[in-house]
Structure formats: C-alpha cells, structure tokens
Amino acid sequence: MSAIGVARPRVEGPDKVTGVARYAADVPMDDLAFGVAVLATVSRGRVRDIDASAVLDMPGVVGVLDHRNAPRLNPEALGFFGPDRQLQLLQDDVVPFSGRPVALVVAETLEQAQAAAAALPVTYQAEPHDTGFTAEHPARRPAVTFFDGPVDIGDVEAELAASAVVVEERYRTPEEHHSAMEPHAATAWWEDGRLEAIDSNQGPFIVAGVLSALFSMPLDRVRVRTEHIGGGFGSKGPCGPHLILAAIAAQRFGRPIRVTLSRTQVFLSTGMRPATDQQIRIGADADGRLRAIWHHAAFEISPLAEFIEGCTELTKTLYAAPAIRTSLSAVPLDILPPCSMRGPGTAPGSFALECAMDELAERLHIDPLELRLRNEPAVGPVSGLPFSSRNLVACLQEGARRFGWAGRDHQPRQQREGRLLIGTGLAATSFSAGAFASTASITAEPDGAYTVAVGAADLGTGARTALTAIAADALEVSTERIRLRISDSALGPAWGAGGSRGTTSWAWAISEAGARMREQGAGTVTVDTTELLGDLPSMERHAFSAVFAEVSVEPATGEVRVRRLLGMYAIGRVVNPLTARSQVIGGMIGGLSMALHEEGFRDRVTGRHVNADFAGYHIATHADVPDIEADFVPDHEPGIPMGIKGAGEIGNVGTAAAIANAVWHATGVRQRSLPLRLDRVLEESPGWAERRTGDGTPG
Ligand code: MOS
C-alpha cells in the first residue's frame, strides 16, 4: 500500500511539543560567546566613529567587531540574484540603509552582549537619503528579469480599442515583512580551518555555498546544519546577516559565536516584500471574452542587490487573450534590500489581476466565476505550450459548489445583518511547478532499514513527514523502515525549501535513488538529478486554485471581518493530506493577513521603519481567522516523479484579492490598496463617495 496520500501527523511532532526539538539558538555548546548586532540608525551615509573602548570594560565583553577589524570577505561572492553587496558585512564604513549592521558586540552571555551593544557609541556622517517609493520615481528602470521577463504578444492597443469594456486601474501593495515565529539565529565555529554553523535557514547547502564563496574556501570545508526551523516564508532563503556576523566573529575571536536577532532586528535587517504599484488594463467583448491584458508592475529595490518581484507571472498563465503585454520596473532606493516572501510577485500580482477581473465582471454584469470560465485557455496564453495538467475549472466549480456561490446577487451592497454589510468574492490563482537539481543517498542497513539522506530543510511545514512517505514508496517498504536524514549541507547539493519546489526537488532525487536501490539491493546509492531534470519537456506546469471569501463590514468603523474562507487546490498528487491542508490553510491565513493588516511603514523624514515590531506591524491572530475550509481536487503532474506539483506558496496567492472583492461586494466601494485598513474602508472618509460604485444607497 502506498504511503503517499496517507494523512500522517508530523514525525517530529512529539519532539516539538515536548521541547526536545532544538532550534539554532538552543543547541548547547562549550565555550560559546554571544554576538549582538548594532544596526545603523541613519538611512544613508558613513560611520564616522565607533568607540569600542567605551564598552570593552563592561561585564563579560569579549570584543567589538566593526569595519576596521573584521576579517575580510571575498567581495565577489554572489547571492541568489547575482552580485550581492548585502553579504559584505563590516567591510567598509558605508551605510546603505538604516538597519544595516555596523558592528557586532561579543560577550560571555547574551544579556552582557545586549547591554554593551546598547551602550556602544556610534556616530555617523549622514547623507541625504531617498526612501520614498513611487512608480514614477526618476530612478526607475526596467527590472532585471531572469524570470518573469516582459512579454508582448498580439496588438494590445488595437485589442483594447476594439473592446466593449476596458478596466484601467491601479493597485498598490505595501512593504510587508515575513514575520516567522523563530527569529533568525546562527551559531558558528571554526575547527581545523573548517567553518561549521547551525543556522535557521531554508536551504543548508545553498547557504553553505555562499559562506564558502565569502570565505574563499572549498565547499567541503564548510558545513551548515539546520535542524528545526520556526518558519521562514522566504526570509531564511538567503545567507542571513546573523550567520555572516557569527562566522566572522568566530574567526576573529577563535570560539563559537551565537548571533540571535531580536524581533526588531529581524524587521530591520533581514529583507521584506517590496512595495508594489501596478497598472492594469483589461479589455473584453460584451460577452466577457478577453481581448487584451496589459500589466505593468513597479517595485522598490536596493542598489546593493538585484531582486525580482515577479508580479506579472500569473498574467501569462491564467486567462486566454489574443494580446498580452507585461513589464516590470524596479526603483532603487536607500532601503532594506527586499527578498522573496510568501508567493513573491504572485501574491501582490494576483491582488491586482484578480481585483481587475472582478471589476471587469462588474462592468460587464457577468458573474465573476463565469468570467473566469469563459477565458479558460487551451494552451499557455503567452507561450503557446500545452499545460502539463490544468485543473483550475475543477477548483472553481467545486469551490463554488461548496461555498454556495450559486444564487449570489452580483450587485454590491445588497446584503445586511443589522449594521453589518455582507459580501462575497472569489479569485483564481496559479503557481508555477517544477524542480531543481538535488542529491539523495540511500543506504541499506543491516537491520532492514534504509537510511535516506537529502539536504532538505523542514520549515515546520512537514517536509520530514512527506519525504519519509516518499522514500517508503520509492523503496516499496513501510515508513517504519525509513531513517530520514535532512538539514545538513554535508548531505550533498540540494535545493532548499523555497519556490514551492522543495518537495518536488527532493522527491525526484529520492525516487530515483529508491529505484536504483531496488535494483541494487544492498550498499549505498547516490543520485544527483541535474541531468534528469534537463530531460523534462517544456510545458506550462502550474498548480491552480480558487479562493472564496465572505466578509462583513462595519460601515461606521471600517472594520472588515473575514467570516468564511474556502480554497480548492490542484497541487498535483497530495503527499500527505493532513500536512498539505495545514500548509495551504497557513497560506490562506497569510493572505488574510496581507489583505487586512500587514503594512511596513517608513518615516519620510528619517527613512527609518517606524513599526518594526508586532505592536506596530500587525499580522493576523487567531481572533482574525474564521472557519477555513481547504481541500484538493484530483490532480497529477505528469512530468515530475510521483505526480507532485508543490503546496508551499499557492495558499498565500489569491486570498487577498478574494477578500478585497468581497469587501467591494459588501460595500460597493473598490479597495485598490492593501491592506484594507479601517480608514480606507470607513464610510464618509475622504474620497469615499468618489470610490463608490454600484447601485446601493449609502448606509
Ligand atoms: Mo519562498 S518566498 O520561495 O521561500
């Protein structure tokens, strides 16, 4: 019997609830010292002076590292998007953004290091900064796009001119922060010229590769382990500042150093989702058939490193249209460099696209569900390639049936409960599926068990549990005979837990190694999938989903409550229905949080973040989360072993648009900026009457 498809609780669950599971800051270690980072308080300029002598006599202080005494790093080390000066910590006196680490104070205890870091006198030569994002900023330029590049098919202008209805609107999403439960932490030490680290990250092999480049040493002399991780959401994909600081401090002071960022330091120094400003034009015939989609997105970046917020990805996938044009522009500012976050690009991009589709349905007087069904493409709308499997229609129809969409009055502002306005909305989504090269080794043990080793990371999503089932199926044995080893760069090249490609990438290597072990019968088998992946024929490979939301709006306060959320997902074969459901529900809560709460603010005068903690940066809490239903339609990815597509991020995508569309349906007012703050939704707020559409009368 297959272990895939069986709902099993997390294999590490008992360790987590009994406190046995150790995170990066928990691992006991002899001779450990603690480093606390000191972050720049100006948004651009230079460090004028750091007076280490003022703190060196404080209790327990071991030393202070800054650009004058830190070990030199290789300036050519690359990050994920290429040259990356974020990595060059404490290498010069330049302050490129507020929150950049300028020193590390090391002491015998965490408290001593915190006290000395707080007391360390740092003075700056401030320079004029620019942290104000607008799409029209004079520094804007085409984004570097090694994915989600610009497309232009058909004649967009002619099709828009020939359209019966054109929606032309602008949508904005703010800077957002990942907010993983576990703050970034690392312990690093040097031993016989080798660098070892225990770090909270999403891909130990990838992070080890960056360290090996930074310290100009062969990869086999760097080892990164990542036992348990309390969430990442993209922020632990890169080699983080905490780890680089721990590694250089361990080198300088010759002992293990632990660096744990405070919550505020996580906000200020580890990356965020950039603000976006998106313009959309969609033209359609009177019967709802799309003629053109034009989607341009601008987002903010840092000059320290390239980054792509691929907002237009879904625009090339979801709907058939004879003309599609997309482009991305980047605006370099003196800000924290952005990094991937929970459906990078697709989450803000789907907010724009799926709200615009809802506006089109409104103007055409068509059911928004029907509008999607009428524009279902036979092949990739831009690529012309076939879909490997496409089950969006099944998601929409089954979701509509369960949600009770039939009979919805598509006019806004028709439903009340006392003072509350009630509305419903939906959004369709997709998320690209694929795999990256990974290595897996399987050893047949004398007792009949198999040790299965793969450099995977489990962010708390259930990767261990899923990979145990995958290995059991690959070896055609029960899960009890699988001893899984993950979380270690020494296990060989492997993709990380990112891009919704962790399970597909690791499963590919495990399934191939399992097949070879079944032939070989004994010993050890090691497989690297680099060449196997190259054989995958070009196709449109995506997971799909449909999200439905019901909201209530209190017109006098602007308070939006999400009352129901339902998501139907086509994510390929579901490895573990229990953890997969939990994962997409987590994603939907992330989308709800994005819709209603999340917004990073920078002060226009100082350029500094003003809400870098959970008192000021709001995320959804239990009280915000309604009854959520998530389920899967039958789906199968033919190109990837075991038929898997990936569940990591699609749960996050589409939810914000479904909620915003429901708020329009409740109120008759379009909300085109996230989050749906009280002051935006509040009736009789400035501009409210102008934003109002629909036939209802003001309450
Ligand atoms: Mo994810 S945002 O690809 O870690």
Tell me about this structure.
Helix 7 packs parallel to helix 14 and helix 10 packs parallel to helix 11. The chain is built from 16 helices and 27 strands. The longest helix is centred in the last third of the chain and has 20 residues. The protein has 699 residues and is α+β, with helices and mostly antiparallel strands. Helices cover 24% and strands 24% of the residues. A hairpin with a 2-residue loop joins strand 12 and strand 13. Bound molecules: dioxothiomolybdenum(VI) ion (MOS). Dioxothiomolybdenum(VI) ion (MOS) binds next to loops.
Strand content: 15-25%
Q: What does the radius of gyration come to? A: 26 Å
In round numbers, the mean pLDDT is 96
Terminal CA distance reads 59 Å
Instruction: Write down how many β-strands occur, each being a DSSP E stretch of 2 or more residues.
Output: 27
Q: Main sheet?
A: 7 strands, mixed
Which compounds are bound in this model?
dioxothiomolybdenum(VI) ion
How many helices? The count is: 16
Q: Structural class, from secondary structure content?
A: alpha+beta
Strand order of the largest sheet: 3-7-1-15-12-13-14
- The shape, in one word, is globular
Helix content range = 10-25%
Return residue spans where pLDDT drops below 50 for at least 5 consecutive residues. 694-699
Which features would summarize this protein structure in a list?
six-stranded mixed sheet; globular; binds dioxothiomolybdenum(VI) ion; disordered C terminus; 24% helix; alpha+beta; 699 residues; single chain; seven-stranded mixed sheet
